[in-house]
Specification:
The chain is 23% helix and 23% strand. It has 389 residues and is α/β, with parallel strands linked by helices. It is globular. It binds 2-acetamido-2-deoxy-beta-D-glucopyranose (5 copies). The site of one 2-acetamido-2-deoxy-beta-D-glucopyranose (NAG) has 6 residues, from strand 6 and strand 7. GO terms for molecular function: O-acetyltransferase activity.
Length: 389
């Protein structure tokens, strides 16, 4: 199955977050009309901590982990996040669907999630379909009947390819005018028209981020369409991201029934192309084999996080943010670059090895799902080590 690479090398790179460090929790308190993000902070800051080397921790084998209690009384347990229990998840979600929507980082988390489920039910039958934009990994046994879906939708808003005819004038033959067919890519920044499948699933995890910042040859649009206007570009890409994200948040508030579908946002996934951010100039992620010590990233904070939290805070749908940015910033060592290309001609410091950091995101996703009723009205209190691969 796709995504199982790095398991061997990564068996020696398992880490856990220790509880003596703080635990960060973004939780949502609901009142009748409005949801807002509440950063509970204090000793229960679920997403903060440091990575600790732990050779004893086997990959995708959390059931064997002796350190974690196995029940789900999220609030009663003090500060204890439930472990990822794939069997429990499959039982809870029998006949149901979970969908990751977004870019290749969403794909990363989707693959990790499917691996974690597969590890829990290794003998279960499954089918895979790697379609674009919709892909699926379905476990099909009657008792283990769950769909794990991926919708490739890197902007969440619509990117349309519109065929267009332009006049082609060849300077060497000025009297011969031809019509040439080209494709124009229009980013419809205020439009979501293909979101129907998102309403039909039980859990949906959205993400959009890095495509907004691609410029030059790798830019994904030719023009932007907004209202009745089409224009060339938005120079301030963070502003463009905010606009697209607001289109998404409005769509979710108007279209997704929170009683049927739990909505999550993946959080901004950091990249590590420049070692000067963490004190190692002239290096990239490919030169690093260990996480950054401690609980804070020495580089500049990711400005998108504030934009994201601002947009989420205005939503009426109780969307839960997987606030993974800081913890992932500490993992400069966890990108595929070093492992896939030791010659270092190609340095992927954006995606993540699987098994690896996305497993941790999925553990937090699982904890949030299991604790869902509590996360709506209480904080999730957590107090034991978070085991991380
Ligand atoms: C899986 O679950 C769905 C919904 O409960 C049901 O319609 C379908 O028949 C199930 N499939 C199998 C193979 O059990
Ligand atoms: C997996 O299940 C989904 C519905 O949950 C369905 O749309 C998709 O076609 C299925 N994929 C395969 C490969 O059977
Ligand atoms: C998996 O599928 C095979 C072939 O259809 C079937 O014989 C087997 O019982 C299935 N496994 C389970 C655990 O249901
Ligand atoms: C677009 O133009 C139409 C017709 O002129 C108008 O009715 C509509 O309100 C406009 N929409 C927006 C978003 O400006
Ligand atoms: C990080 O911590 C480890 C263990 O305490 C230590 O061996 C290592 O030198 C530290 N690395 C840096 C860059 O401070």
């Amino acid at each position: 199955m796709a995504g199982f690479s790095f398991r061997r090398s990564y068996q020696h790179y398992a880490f856990y977050l220790v509880n003596s460090l703080f635990i960060l929790l973004i939780s949502f308190f609901l009142d009748d009309t409005h949801a807002r993000i509440v950063n509970v902070g204090g000793n229960c800051d679920f997403y903060k901590g440091s990575w600790v080397y732990d050779e004893s921790y086997p990959l995708y084998d959390s059931l064997q982990c002796p350190f974690i209690p196995g029940d789900f009384h999220c609030v009663a347990n003090g500060c204890d996040p439930p472990r990822f229990d794939g069997l429990d998840f499959v039982k809870r979600f029998k006949g149901k669907k979970i969908m990751f929507v977004g870019d290749s980082i969403s794909n990363n988390q989707w693959v990790s999630f499917a691996c974690m489920i597969h590890a829990a039910i290794p003998n279960a039958n499954f089918t895979t379909y790697h379609g674009i934009p919709m892909a699926s990994i379905n476990f099909t046994d009657p008792d283990h009947n769950i769909s794990i879906l991926f919708n490739h939708k890197p902007f969440l808003v619509e990117l349309e390819e519109i065929p267009e005819r332009i006049l082609k004038i060849d300077n060497h033959k000025p009297f011969l005018v031809e019509l040439e067919e080209i494709t124009e890519r229009i980013l419809k920044i205020d439009t979501i028209s293909t979101g129907d499948p998102w309403k039909e699933v039980d859990v949906v995890i959205f993400n959009t981020w890095h495509w907004w910042f691609h410029k030059g040859k790798i830019q994904h649009w030719d023009k932007i369409h907004e209202g009745n206007k089409t224009y060339k570009d938005i120079d301030d890409r963070l502003a463009a991201f905010a606009k697209g994200l607001t289109t998404w948040s409005t769509w979710v508030d108007n279209n997704i029934d929170p009683k049927k579908t739990q909505v999550f946002y993946q959080g901004i996934s950091p990249t590590h192309p420049k070692g000067n951010e963490w004190g190692f100039p002239h290096t990239t992620c490919a030169d690093h084999r260990t996480p950054i010590n401690g609980t804070t990233y020495p580089g500049i904070p990711e400005p998108g996080v504030a934009v994201l939290k601002e947009v989420l805070s205005k939503m009426s749908n109780p969307v839960i943010l997987l606030d993974v940015t800081t913890m992932s910033q500490l993992r400069k060592d966890a990108h595929p670059s070093y492992y896939t290309n030791q010659g270092r001609t190609l340095r992927d410091c954006g995606h993540w090895c699987v098994a690896g950091v996305p497993d941790t995101w999925n553990r937090l996703l699982y904890a949030s799902i299991v604790c869902w009723p509590e996360t709506r009205t209480h904080r999730i209190d957590m107090n034991l080590p978070i085991l991380i691969t």
